[in-house]
Amino acid sequence: MSNTVNLTINGFDVSVPKGTTVLEAAELLGIKIPVLCFHKDLCIAGNCRVCVVEQVGSKKLVAACATPVHEGMEILTNSLLVRNSRKHMIELLLSEHNADCTKCYRNGNCELQDLASEYKITNQDFIDLAVSRAYTIDAFSPSILKDDSRCIRCQRCVRTCDELQSVGALAVAHKGDHMKISTFFNKPISEVVCTNCGQCVIHCPTGALIERNYIEEVWTAIADPTKHVVVQTAPAVRIGLGEELGLSPGERVTGKMIAALRRLGFNSVLDTDFTADLTILEEGTELLHRLEKVLVEKDEKYKLPMTTSCSPGWVKFFEHIYPDMLDHMSTCKSPQQMFGALAKTYYAKKIGVDPENIVSVSIMPCTAKKFEANRPEMRDSGYKDVDYVLTTRELAIMIKQAGIEFADLPEEKYDSIMGKSSGAGVIFGTTGGVMEAALRTAYEIVTGREVPFENLNITPVRGLEGVKEAKIKIEGCKPEWKFLEGVELKCAVAHTLANARKVMDLVKSGKADYHFIEVMACPGGCLGGGGQPIPTTPEIRQKRMQAIYEEDMSLPIRKSHENPEVQQLYKEFLGEPYGHLSHKLLHTEYVERQRY
Ligand code: FES
User: Fold this and answer.
1) Residue 594 in domain
2) Do residues 228 and 306 share a domain?
3) Could you tell which of 51, 61, 92 is best to mutate to test the pocket of ligand 1, judged by most ligand atoms within 8 Å of the CB?
4) Which one of 236, 310, 394, 463 has the minimum C-beta count within 10 Å?
5) Is any atom of ligand 1 closer than 6 Å to the C-beta of 368?
6) Domain check: are 375 and 235 in the same one?
7) 101 is catalytic
8) Which pLDDT tens digit goes with each residue over 5-17?
């Protein structure tokens, strides 16, 4: 039996594998069928009907996203009937959508607005229900703002929160005309299990879910001559920012981004990758310490596997879902927060500025970082360690507002000190990157030799599979690490919280014997974070990932422990990794949270 199906679309023949949808078959012919509730990351809902096409011989219009092809099918994607039906669907959606587009944060990047423009919806045949309805705007979260007046009930956010993230903070409430997207008990999203990952924002086609933006606060700080504004940029921003400014996905824009930040008026342009390297020193040392405590001393206070702690969406998920396992999580703060604590201590001293006058801004691919910066424990410098967190998208807005021609900017370099990084710091931006960076350093500390992988590229932890595993046998240990001789270090890497849950459930039930687990809350890791350019699709994530590895290969230093500025920091300020001052500034603790 053939696995190929033959059909015609708009009179053109096409052969596709069985199971292909009409939408996918049309894409192969270069025909774009509009979609709204459909997203490649999510299961098919088929509820918006914007993608309707005509099936010749059938009396019904069918949803292209939800209809598999069959032999001999004849499809029309642009008949009069199709165009009129689509136009009606768009008009109906607009009738219950607050179409005050000029005042919408997503103005200019809204899928409904694009469709209204393409179909030239210039007058309204349906009653405007948006004006007469009572809507809720939930602005309590430091990360995410939910505006029900702009919701078109496509449920992409619910499917994202449920399927992709296994969080379930958002749900469909009520039926029919009263149907709305709500949280459990209709509480503000800041009071439920929401991890602030922002994947709902990335997947929302309109402005119903957006980031809480802090652009004006940052402009005000820059304009204040008494303030010294320090900015740090996360690894994944440099491979995403270009997309918001007219460049193609996967273009590396590190040098231009630095130049743009200087022209915006930041006083010091520094790199989160520096503290990514520092995290490896701290986390790697912590892992070795735990291995000794558990394997040699059998000390029950210490737990394996140790999980990473640099993804704040993952941290909050862990606090809600596994509150009885918090001692498995590394005590390391994320690179953002390590940077914040050092900016107002070590860096302030270095440049001779009163920390009171330092404003610390971070540019992150992540909305959960906004919540993280607001955690009450993140004040170890004696001040709020990170004052404002902007997403990649917010930085792009500032660059546009300042009238900077991004493509014409020269390539510039980060300021020193806290501006230098290794390739290992860069790969923090992708799933598997923290694990790879940690193994490059930990293996060398223990054995005195480089990890046994070509070009330091630990390929088993790379790629976009949801869960990856790697084993490394440790042989030829230095005398002080003899207890690790012959140990096979077992590692797991998970991205998305649904995959993280699978791994942690295995650990909880005693069915997995990993030593070290890396988790990133977002698909692909930070490169697919909730603060990255919209759209973010599987193809775009792939290109961003490739760019991250290219950036790693382009750097002269590719192991965190070889970063000279990190070495200087320990020598002049911190002392030993995982030592007293490190514990005070760079480590933290977690809180048990309720699950509604
Ligand atoms: Fe196909 Fe919504 S995109 S039904």
Assistant:
1) no
2) no
3) 51
4) 463
5) no
6) yes
7) no
8) 999 999 999 999 9
Q: Using CB atoms within 10 A of its CB, is residue 6 exposed (0-12), middle (13-18) or buried (19+)?
A: middle
Alpha-carbon distance 488 to 461, whole Å?
16
Q: How far is CA 163 from CA 34, 416, 472, 531, 596, in A?
A: 23, 43, 32, 20, 18
Residues 543 and 517 in one domain: yes
Instruction: Supply the range of the domain harboring residue 66.
Output: 4-78
Within a domain: 143: yes
- Could you tell me the pLDDT band of residue 596, with boundaries at 50, 70 and 90? low
- Tell me the best of 22, 35, 155 to mutate to test the pocket of ligand 1, counting ligand atoms within 8 Å of each CB and taking the most: 35
Same structural domain, 403 and 442: no
Q: Look at ligand 1, atom 4, and give the residue with the nearest C-alpha.
A: 46
Based on the fold, state whether residues 174 and 314 are members of the same structural domain. Answer: no
| DSSP assignments along 552-589, one per residue | HHHSS--SGGG-HHHHHHIIIII-STTSHHHHHHHB--
244 a catalytic residue: no
Is 141 marked active-site?
no
> Within this chain, do residues 72 and 171 fall inside the same structural domain, yes or no?
no
- Which pair of structure tokens corresponds to residue 293? 């405590």
Sign of CA dihedral 548, 107, 214, 229: positive
What tokens were used for 84? Answer: 């009129």
User: Catalytic site residue 151?
Assistant: no
Burial 342-366 (b: 16+ CB within 10 A, else e): bbbbbbbebeebebeebbbbbbbbb
The CA 77 to ligand 1 mean position distance, Å, reads: 14
* Å from CA of 52 to ligand 1 middle: 7
Beta carbon of 152 within 6 Å of any ligand 1 atom: no
> From the CB of 36, is ligand 1 less than 6 Å away?
yes
CATH of the domain at 136: 3.30.70.20
112 lines ligand 1 (CB under 6 A): no
CATH code of the domain in which 581 resides: 3.40.950.10
**Total tally of structural domains belonging to the chain:** 4
Q: Is 233 helix (H, G, I), strand (E, B) or coil?
A: strand
284 found inside a domain: yes
Report pLDDT digits (tens) over 469-505: 999 999 999 999 999 999 999 999 999 999 999 999 9
Distances in whole angstroms, Cα of residue 56 to Cα of each of 14, 59, 70, 72, 80: 16, 8, 13, 10, 13
Query: Per-residue pLDDT tens for 375-389?
Result: 999 999 999 999 999
Residues 374 and 517 in one domain: no
Q: What would the pLDDT profile of 189-203 be if each residue is shown by its tens digit? A: 999 999 999 999 999
Task: Give a yes or no: residue 593 inside a domain.
Answer: no
341 and 324 belong to one structural domain: no
Residue in 267, 361, 285 with CA at minimum distance from that of residue 587: 285
